[in-house]
């Protein structure tokens, strides 16, 4: 570009640029298109720069004329660009608002929230009461050995008490535990007295199903071993617990027999107009303590096993244990 250029030519170019820019900006439809125009018009390699580059070829006294004109044009174009940008953005927003209608009468999306099964909340409540009395929570396996489930609890092979607690045998010595009492043995093996524990869990029995029996159910075991514990401690603890759980429900202690306690008792509460057995208890038999190497002359204690389903049924007025296992939401949602 060594050819000379006149002031008039340059001025015409600027006029042309002005008209061209105004038209392009007025029809640009997006922020991106406007940015592209800005670069093309005002950028370093843009059209205005090209005109200004040619300005150097004018005689010195004519240059300021073109320079001033170019500056005015630049400001003009910047003004048009920003005006148009505002308009384009407003139009985009208006379009979005028009497209996104909000129907406030539409039903909210329903996220069903679950809650605890009544058996679980019953266990939690029982455990809570005993925690308040200073008991710790322990757990044991559901697959037990013959030793922990029976023999160590003073139920040797062929003892008739085994008949009442028939269960599923996985091998000659492994079975599904019939009660939570084996946790007593497991705990005492590694924890010397004084001991105060509760052990909640699931147990299994070959029982015919009826309104109050299920082959799978839950128990909470209670065990306290210390110096000087006697039957009054057992009775006081059980009574306090029942009072806290049931309030003023009629309760009776009935003499009974368990191989691992002596003396033994069963506790009944009123349910649907009759007595319902809800727990067994007794003073831990000295033979059980001796088997664990604990001196029964020094230590004594009491134990109890509660049937969780029955506590739950009495508490909530449930008429049939099977309702607790059939997962019918119409039933479960009431708790
Ligand atoms: N394990 C007994 C059962 O399932 C209940 C029981 C009775 C537990 C007396 C005890 C107890 O700890 O002392 O029938």
Task: Explain what the structure shows.
The radius of gyration is 44 Å and the shape is rod-shaped. Helix 5 crosses helix 11. It has helices spanning 7-27, 31-42, 47-55, 63-99, 118-132, 146-149, 161-164, 182-190, 231-246, 286-291, 308-316, 329-332, and strands at residues 136-137, 143-145, 174-176, 195-204, 216-227, 251-258, 261-271, 274-284, 299-307. The chain is 44% helix and 21% strand. The termini are far apart. The structure holds 3,4-dihydroxyphenylalanine. 3,4-dihydroxyphenylalanine binds at residues 179, 181, 221, 258, 261, 280-282, 303-305.
Low-confidence runs: none
Shape: rod-shaped
Structural class: alpha+beta
- Helix and strand run: HHHHHEEHHEHEEHEEEHEHH
Query: How much strand content do the residues show?
Result: 15-25%
In short:
With 335 residues, the protein is an alpha+beta fold. Helix content is 44%, strand content 21%. It has helices at residues 7-27, 31-42, 47-55, 63-99, 118-132, 146-149, 161-164, 182-190, 231-246, 286-291, 308-316, 329-332, and strands at 136-137, 143-145, 174-176, 195-204, 216-227, 251-258, 261-271, 274-284, 299-307.
Main attributes?
single chain, 335 residues, alpha+beta, 7-stranded mixed β-sheet, two-stranded antiparallel sheet, rod-shaped, binds 3,4-dihydroxyphenylalanine
Record the SSE blueprint.
Blueprint: H1 7-27, H2 31-42, H3 47-55, H4 63-99, H5 118-132, E1 136-137, E2 143-145, H6 146-149, H7 161-164, E3 174-176, H8 182-190, E4 195-204, E5 216-227, H9 231-246, E6 251-258, E7 261-271, E8 274-284, H10 286-291, E9 299-307, H11 308-316, H12 329-332
Parallel strand pairs: 1-4
Antiparallel strand pairs: 2-3, 4-5, 5-9, 6-7, 7-8, 8-9
Helix pairs in contact: 1-3, 1-4, 2-4, 3-4, 5-11
The structure holds 3,4-dihydroxyphenylalanine.
The site of 3,4-dihydroxyphenylalanine has 11 residues, from strand 8 and strand 9.
């Amino acid at each position: 570009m060594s050819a000379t250029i006149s002031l008039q030519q340059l001025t015409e170019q600027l006029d042309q640029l002005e008209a061209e820019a105004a038209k392009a900006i007025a029809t640009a439809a997006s922020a991106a298109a406007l940015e592209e125009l800005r670069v093309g018009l005002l950028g370093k390699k843009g059209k205005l720069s090209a005109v200004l580059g040619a300005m150097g070829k004018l005689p010195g006294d004519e240059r300021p004329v073109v320079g001033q004109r170019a500056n005015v044009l630049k400001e003009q174009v910047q003004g048009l660009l920003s005006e148009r940008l505002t308009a384009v953005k407003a139009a985009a927003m208006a379009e979005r608002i028009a497209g996104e209608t909000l129907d406030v009468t539409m039903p909210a999306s329903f996220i069903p929230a679950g809650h605890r099964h009544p058996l679980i909340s019953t266990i939690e409540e029982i455990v809570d009461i005993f925690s308040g009395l200073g008991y710790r929570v322990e757990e044991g396996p559901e697959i037990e050995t013959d030793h922990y489930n029976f023999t160590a609890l003073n139920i040797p092979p062929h003892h008739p008490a085994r008949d009442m607690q028939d269960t599923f045998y996985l091998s000659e010595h492994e079975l599904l535990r019939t009660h939570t009492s084996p946790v007593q043995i497991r705990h005492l093996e590694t924890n010397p007295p004084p001991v105060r524990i509760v052990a909640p869990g699931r147990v299994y029995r070959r029982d015919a199903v009826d309104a109050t029996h299920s082959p799978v159910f839950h128990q909470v075991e209670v065990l306290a071993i210390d110096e000087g514990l006697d039957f009054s401690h057992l009775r006081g603890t059980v009574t306090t617990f029942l009072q806290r759980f049931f309030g003023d429900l009629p309760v009776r202690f009935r003499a009974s027999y368990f191989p691992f306690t002596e003396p033994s008792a069963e506790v009944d509460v009123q349910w649907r107009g009759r007595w319902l057995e809800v727990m067994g208890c007794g003073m831990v038999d000295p033979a059980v303590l001796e088997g664990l190497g604990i001196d029964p002359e020094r230590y004594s204690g009491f134990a109890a096993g509660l049937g969780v389903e029955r506590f739950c049924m009495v508490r909530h007025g449930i008429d049939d244990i099977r309702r607790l296992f059939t997962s019918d939401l119409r039933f479960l949602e009431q708790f």
